[in-house]
Write a structure and sequence with these properties.
Methylamine Dehydrogenase, Chain H; 2 domains; 4-stranded antiparallel beta sheet; 7 helices; 32 strands
C-alpha cells in the first residue's frame, strides 16, 4: 500500500544501500509541466521514516538547478571517505550531465555541485553506476553515444567501442550484476552487450518477429547471462527475458500490460521479483522465473501513467514510483489496500470542469504477494527429536528444501538407555528389559520397583505381584521394628 507521497513530477533515485537514514532524491522531470505551468527546476532530497504516520516525507535538501532531468541515479562516492554519501548524477537536455556531492547537498553547502559537463549530443536519458567499481558511471544519449566516466578522474570519458549502427538514441544502459566488465545498452530496435575489456560489442539482441520498441534493460541479479527488455510500443507491451547463451529468441515473454511498458526494475534481494509500470496506469510485480512469468502482485496506482519504478536498496520491501499526475509515491510491498485519488492540484487549476470526474471513486487495487519474499523466508531450521536425533532443513531460492538427519550425543549413557527402551517397546520383550535393569541396579532402592514391574509382565502376574507386595510389606515392618 502507499505509505508516503511527494507532490512532484520528478525522476527519482534511492540512496545507496549503506546510507543511513534512507533518502530519496527527486529531480524535476524534463518535458513535463505541472498544473501551475511552472518552469522552475529543483533537485531535492527527502528522508524516509516509516515509523512516522502520514504520507508526508520531510524535505532535507532543495537546490534550484538550471535544467530538468531525463534520468537520475545515486551511486558510490569518488574514493573512500571523499564522498561518504555518494554522488547524485542527473542527465539533462543538450548533453548535460550534472554531478552532486550528496553529503554536501544534504548539509546545504554551496559547493555541492561537483561537475556539470556537456560531452554528449542531445538529452541524456541513460545512466547507471557500476555495482563493483563505484567510481565508474555509464551514460548514453543521442546518435548512439555511450561514455564511461571515472568519477575519481573527471577528465575525458572513454567509450566502449565504435558507435553502434545505425545511429539511434541510447534509451538505457545497465551494468551486469555478476561480471563487472559487461554492460548492456538499449536502442529502440536492439540491445547491444559490450565487453569493456575488448572495447567491443559482443552480441546484439533484437526480435525481428515483433514490432517492439525497447525502452529499458535490466540484468538478472543472480544469472549473469540473463536480462529483461521492456517494450514501450502499445501494440507489443511486453517484457522479454533473454539468455545470451541462446540469443536467437527470447527465453520468456511476460504479457500483462495492455499498453507500452515504460520502466522495469529487478529486485536485487529476490530474483523472483520484477517490477514494471506502463501506459496502462498499472504497476505489476512479476515472478519471471516461474513458468512463462506470473503476476504475483499489483500496486495501487494513480489516474496517470507511472514512468519510473525503483526498489529501495536498503529496504527491499519498499518501492518508489513516479507518475505524470505530479506524484512520487512510496509503496510497501507487504500488502494492504489503497484507493487512488485524483490530483488536488489539477482540481484547483481547472476548477469545477473536472469535479464530476474527480468525485468518482478510484479503482480499488489489492496488493498482496502470493508467497513471502526471499528476505523474509527462513533460510534454515532445526528441530530435535527423540534419542538425540536432529533434523535440519536448508532453503535455497528456486530449489526444493534439503533435509538432513543427524544424531547429536551429549549424554552417551542416556542415549544408550533410551535406545534399549525403544527396542524393547518395539519387540515387546518387557520382562527381559526389567531383568536387565535389575542386574544393573543390584540391591539399590529402585530395584524393588523393577522387581514389581518384572512380575507384572510374567505369567500368573497377579499372584507374583501380590507375593512381591507382601514381601515388600514384611520387609518394611522389620525395618521399622
Amino acid at each position: 500500500m502507499k505509505v508516503k507521497e511527494v507532490d512532484r513530477t520528478a525522476n527519482i533515485a534511492w540512496s545507496p544501500q549503506p546510507q543511513v537514514p534512507i533518502f530519496l532524491a527527486a529531480g524535476t522531470a524534463a518535458q513535463q509541466l505541472d498544473a501551475s505551468f511552472s518552469t522552475n527546476s529543483n533537485l531535492e532530497v527527502y528522508a524516509l521514516n516509516l515509523t512516522e504516520s502520514g504520507h508526508d516525507m520531510p524535505l532535507v535538501a532543495s537546490l534550484p538547478v538550471d535544467q530538468r532531468y531525463h534520468k537520475l541515479v545515486w551511486g558510490g562516492g569518488a574514493g573512500e571517505g571523499a564522498m561518504p554519501s555518494g554522488l547524485i548524477v542527473g542527465g539533462a537536455d543538450r548533453g548535460v550531465i550534472s554531478m552532486y556531492d550528496a553529503a554536501k547537498l544534504v548539509k546545504g553547502a554551496e559547493d555541492a555541485l561537483v561537475l556539470s559537463i556537456d560531452k554528449h549530443t542531445g538529452p541524456v536519458a541513460a545512466l547507471d553506476f557500476n555495482p563493483f567499481q563505484a567510481n565508474l558511471l555509464a551514460s548514453g544519449a543521442s546518435e548512439s553515444e555511450i561514455h564511461i566516466w571515472d568519477v575519481n578522474k573527471l577528465t575525458a570519458p572513454m567509450t566502449p567501442g565504435a558507435k553502434s549502427q545505425p545511429l539511434e538514441e541510447v534509451r538505457g544502459v545497465a551494468w551486469n550484476r555478476q561480471v563487472q566488465h559487461i554492460m548492456a545498452s538499449t536502442f529502440a530496435s536492439r540491445c547491444v552487450v559490450w565487453d569493456l575489456r575488448k572495447n567491443d560489442p559482443i552480441i546484439k539482441v533484437s526480435d525481428s518477429t515483433s514490432r517492439s520498441r525497447w525502452k529499458c534493460v535490466v540484468w538478472h541479479p543472480e544469472v549473469a547471462t540473463q536480462m529483461a527488455l521492456a517494450s514501450e510500443d502499445d501494440h507489443t507491451p511486453v517484457i522479454q527475458i533473454w539468455d545470451l547463451r541462446q540469443a536467437s529468441s527470447p527465453m520468456k515473454q511476460l504479457e500483462g500490460h495492455t499498453a507500452g511498458v515504460l520502466s522495469v526494475a529487478w529486485c536485487q534481494a529476490d530474483a523472483d521479483l520484477l517490477l514494471s509500470c506502463g501506459k496502462d496506469n498499472r504497476i505489476l510485480v512479476w515472478n519471471p522465473n516461474r513458468g512463462g512469468g506470473e503476476v504475483v502482485a499489483e500496486l495501487p496506482t494513480s489516474n496517470q501513467w507511472s514512468f519510473e519504478v525503483s526498489w529501495c536498496p536498503r529496504n527491499p520491501g519498499v518501492i518508489a514510483s513516479a507518475s505524470f499526475d505530479g506524484h512520487v509515491s512510496v509503496h510497501s510491498l507487504m500488502g494492504g489496500q489503497q484507493q487512488a485519488q485524483p490530483s488536488s492540484r489539477v482540481e484547483e487549476s481547472f476548477g469545477s470542469s473536472i469535479n464530476a470526474v474527480a468525485n468518482q471513486p478510484g479503482p480499488q487495487v489489492t496488493m498482496q504477494l502470493k508467497e513471502p519474499p526471499k528476505w523474509l523466508r527462513r533460510p534454515c531450521g532445526a528441530s530435535f527429536g527423540f534419542g538425540g536425533r536432529l533434523v535440519t532443513v536448508e532453503q535455497v531460492a528456486g530449489v526444493k528444501p534439503t533435509l538432513y538427519l543427524s544424531t547429536v550425543v551429549t549424554e552417551p549413557d542416556l542415549v544408550a538407555d533410551s535406545a534399549k527402551l525403544e527396542t524393547s517397546l518395539q519387540e515387546e520383550n518387557f520382562t527381559d528389559f526389567c531383568q536387565a535393569k535389575l542386574l544393573q541396579l543390584g540391591e539399590s532402592s529402585q530395584a524393588e520397583l523393577w522387581k514389581y514391574l518384572a512380575a507384572s509382565f510374567q505369567g500368573e502376574a497377579s499372584c507374583q505381584s501380590i507375593s512381591q507386595l507382601a514381601w515388600n510389606t514384611t520387609r518394611g515392618n522389620q525395618t521399622d521394628s
